[in-house]
Amino acid sequence: KFLNKEVELGDFSGIRFLGISLNNSEIVDKQNKESQIKADKVFVGIKPIQSLLNQKWIIQISPKKAKINIDKDFFRSLNSNSNKKISKNSAIKFDLNFRLNEYADLKLNDFGLDTKLRGEFIYKSFSRQIIGNIKSNFEGKGRITIKLNTNLDKDIFKIALFSKGINLGNSFYNIGERKLEVKAGSFKSNFEFVKSPTNSSCKGKFSFDKFNFKTFDLGEDLKLDSLKFSCKENNLVAYTNTFNYGTLTSEFNINIPLNKNINNVNLEGTVRYLNSLNPDIKFYGNMPYWFDKR
C-alpha cells in the first residue's frame, strides 16, 4: 500500500541488467476502484552509481503499454501531514524515476480528457518534490509539452505549457458539475507560471481562438472569436474579441495581479445586441482571490 493505493506488482517476468521485469502491474485507488493505472510490462531497476553518489536509492520504473484512467484526487494522499512526517523521519531516502518511453493512454475522468502522453516524472521522497517533462498527443489534433516542478515542503509550484496549436473541436469536457461540448476551437500556449510562499509570477501568453461551444443547461451555442491571456508587469491580463450568445454580443477585459498574497481580479466589459451600435450594458467589478495552501 502506498499513498492510500493498492499496488499489485504483478507477475515476475525475468531478471534484466540492474533490475527485474514484471507483467500485469497495477495501482488502484482504494476510494475509487475505477481510478487506476495499469501496465502490461514494467521494468524496475536501481541506478547504483547515482545512488552511491547521492547517498539515496534512485529507482527507475519504465512501463510499457500503460493505461492511466484516474480521477483528479488520485495523487492526493488522505493524510498529507502524516506522510510528510513519515518522509522526514524515515531513514530511507529515495528518488522514483518514472519514464514513459512510449505513449501511454491517459483519461482524466473528472474533466473528460482523453489523450496520450510520454515523458518522465521524478519524485524525491525527502523534499516531496515532483519534477516532470511530459509530451501529450491529442490523436492528430496537436501536441502540448508540459514542464512541472513542485516542492510540497517549500510550497513552490512551477508549470510551463508549450503548444503550437491544439484543435479542441468535437470533444466533451467536464468543468465542475457542468458538461461542455466544444464544437470547434483551438488552443495555443507559450506560458510559464511560478508560485512561491511570498510571490507568484508568470511570463508568456496563451489563447483560445474560434471557439464554438455549448453547455447543456443553455439553449444556444456560445461563440468566441478569441480569448487571449498575456503576462504584463506580473499581471495576467485577458481580453476577448466578440463573445456571442444568441442575439447578444459582449467584450470584456480581465486583469489578474499575481504579486500579493491576496489580490483583486479586475473585470470590465460591455454587452449589446447584435443590431445595436452602442453598448446596452457596461459592467465593472473586482473580486479578491488567494491561493489555498491546504
What is the secondary structure topology, with strand pairs?
Elements: E1 5-8, E2 11-16, E3 19-29, E4 36-46, H1 48-54, E5 57-70, H2 80-89, E6 94-108, E7 113-124, E8 129-137, E9 143-151, E10 156-167, E11 171-175, E12 178-195, E13 200-215, E14 222-232, E15 235-245, E16 248-257, E17 263-273, E18 281-289
Parallel strand pairs: 5-6
Antiparallel strand pairs: 1-3, 2-3, 3-4, 4-5, 6-7, 7-8, 8-9, 9-10, 10-12, 11-12, 12-13, 13-14, 14-15, 15-16, 16-17, 17-18
Task: Please give a structural write-up.
This protein has an 18-stranded mixed beta sheet that branches. It starts with a strand and ends in a 5-residue tail after the last strand. The chain has helices at residues 48-54, 80-89; strands at 5-8, 11-16, 19-29, 36-46, 57-70, 94-108, 113-124, 129-137, 143-151, 156-167, 171-175, 178-195, 200-215, 222-232, 235-245, 248-257, 263-273, 281-289. The relative contact order is 0.07. By secondary structure, it is mainly beta.
Q: Unreliable segments (pLDDT under 50, ≥5 consecutive)?
A: none
Strand proportion: over 45%
What's the mean pLDDT score?
Answer: 84
| H/E topology pattern | EEEEHEHEEEEEEEEEEEEE
End-to-end distance, in Å? Answer: 24 Å
Question: How many strands?
Answer: 18
Q: Specify the overall morphology.
A: elongated
Quickly count the helices: 2
Biggest beta sheet summary: 18 strands, mixed
Structural class: mainly beta
Work out the helicity level: under 10%
Radius of gyration: 23 Å
